[in-house]
Amino acid sequence: MELRRLRLIEGVSFLFGDVTYQGKSMRLPARQFDLLKALVEASPESITVDALNRIGYRERRTASYPESRAVKVHIRMIRQALIASGVPLRIEQRRGFGYRCVSL
To answer: Which long-range contacts link 70-74 to residues 24+ away (Cβ below 8 Å)?
Structure first.
């Protein structure tokens, strides 16, 4: 089994919906921008789905809402934007916990 060393993601620039990393940039809608920024700032640690709900929707949710797929949908859209723009970041899911962002 190969162990990967996780490190802080440095050099990511966030400015009014634009994300730039290693010379590649992309534009995200406000909610997706907020979610990606939180994931990058927490890297290499993970963020729970409940915390991402509070960040993305500015709501105080104390219980888990499995029927709410909003964060999952936004994460999918962020992943697609990262691939399409060539920004070398990846969002990983930690099953039963949340998500984290890592540099490729």
So the answer is: 71/35, 74/31, 74/32, 74/35
- The CATH class of 13-103 is mainly alpha
CA 86 to chain CA mean position, Å: 15
Nearest-Å Rg of the Cα atoms of the chain is 13
pLDDT along the chain (104 residues), means of 10: 50 83 89 92 91 77 59 94 91 92 88
Q: What are the start-end ranges of the E strands in the chain? A: 13-15, 18-21, 24-27, 47-48, 89-94, 98-103
Distance CA 2, CA 62 (A): 37
User: Alpha-carbon distance 101 to 63, whole Å?
Assistant: 24
pLDDT given at position 2? 41
What's the CA gap between 79 and 93, in Å, rounded? Answer: 11
